[in-house]
## 1
Amino acid sequence: MATAKIAPSMLSSDFANLASEAERMVRLGADWLHMDIMCRHFVPNLTIGAPVIQSLRKHTKAYLDCHLMVTNPSDYVEPFGKAGASGFTFHIEVARDNWQELIQSIRSKGMRPGVSLRPGTPVEDVFPLVEAENPVELVLVMTVEPGFGGQKFMPEMMDKVRTLRKKYPSLDIEVDGGLGPSTIDVAASAGANCIVAGSSIFGAADPGEVISVLRKSVVESQNKN
Ligand code: DX5
Ligand code: ZN
């Protein structure tokens, strides 16, 4: 079974204190740290690149779940591999012609390949990547338009999660955008097991409590099925 992974989105952390924020999240029960890499061409925002991952890696052993919202993911594979990224999730919308080579090179650099899709992209578009001989190991279903934290969860994306879970019982299915205590149950019961949450964790008075609420919902949904 795909186990529950709670991944605080470091986009909502204090970037000036990234190392201590990472340490705090791990101490509070985070399984993964979600790192949002954005270039201004794929999304209207700009965040961090490989040098920051490399610096952070010196301070933590945590799994760095990198979500590449960039137009040329293949340019980032080598630097991210060297920097110590753990997971490398690219967007299907910019990899329609080269996803096979991309998956291959991600794996050859010691990272775990994943694919993400924007809200407007049909879920069928990622089936070939999951079914390939050299497949992705994670599908990230965006539940907001990528670009910014703090947006409203799109429940209509749960059809994609249900479809994926039905087809691929042990796949890591990640949801990202607007997740928190008020939206987790619908995502968990649809079959998501990797939960990204930025503002709901970092904005909470007790972030550790939010992490445990998210985990509990995933575990309980899995136990029902
Ligand atoms: C949005 C990013 C998300 C974002 C989620 O493009 O991919 O990871 O940080 O933030 P919240 O949980 O606040 O919606
Ligand atoms: Zn993300």
## 2
Amino acid sequence: MHSEACIGQKKSVYEGTNAVPRSGDPGRVLHLGLTDGELANRVIVVGHHTRADLLSGFLEAEDSGSVFKLASDRGFLTYTGQFAGERLSVVSIGMGLAMMDFFLREARAVVKGPMAVVRLGTCGCLQEHVKVGNVSVADGSALVQRNYSHFDSQSPAHAKPYTISELCLPDAELTSTVIAALREALGGEKVNEGTNLTADSFYSSQGRADSAFNDENSQLIGEVLDRYPKAITMEMETFQLFHLARSCLPKGTMRAAACVVNVANRPTGEVVGEEALRLAESEGGKALMKALAKLQL
Ligand code: R1P
Ligand code: URA
């Protein structure tokens, strides 16, 4: 018999399967790959590695003499260092509700004490007057989900193809600090505030047309705007961040805020240029790091 198949003779690949499992010694959480103390209480969370690399350039070395860096084999990339006298991490988590869930739960498991998390993402913008390259801060977020039951031919006719949730709110103080820092860094005309919509797909639940699938979404953006006329941004993680921060126990120990660079104006079809995007990411990101460092935790 091949040795890998000898169930019962090998140490388990991880422990604690009914809670937040860890593997190795020291125990590392399964998906972020981090162990206790490697992540700071103040975190900027972004969607891709290039943005994390960019912002990690603003971090200064820890006492060890370098900025901590760890790439997990599940796609998470963590940097931890010093910024304006505080310990701060920048983490790239990839995309979607599930990745934000992995991140916040496993981050909570390896960090002691109160946390503050700010997302710097990108989005499609639903309002014609909001310019691409601007940064929009969420004053609330609603979740737009594909209703899988609707697409099952056995389901009752009244089940709608998409569900739209109630609003979930961010931390008010952190959000005001973020807005002030962004305005100072980018100028007031480049910073918008409004409702965020988090979708469970880049495609169907964001109202994109794709003739290769039955999506029944041609009316979706209109329905969402009827319900939330102040909605300006549509992306894929903010609701989960706000929801889990509010669900975190003890209450108030995880504070959250979120903003996104508008990369595409959905009504006009305009898409941001490379240079404007990098500028918003780097100057906006630095402003968020200042806001996080300033926050009394
Ligand atoms: C889709 O292209 C991705 O871009 C947006 C969405 O939320 C989704 O994750 O944000 P990020 O640029 O932060 O990944
Ligand atoms: N990210 C999204 O989720 N949607 C967009 O339209 C652009 C970026």
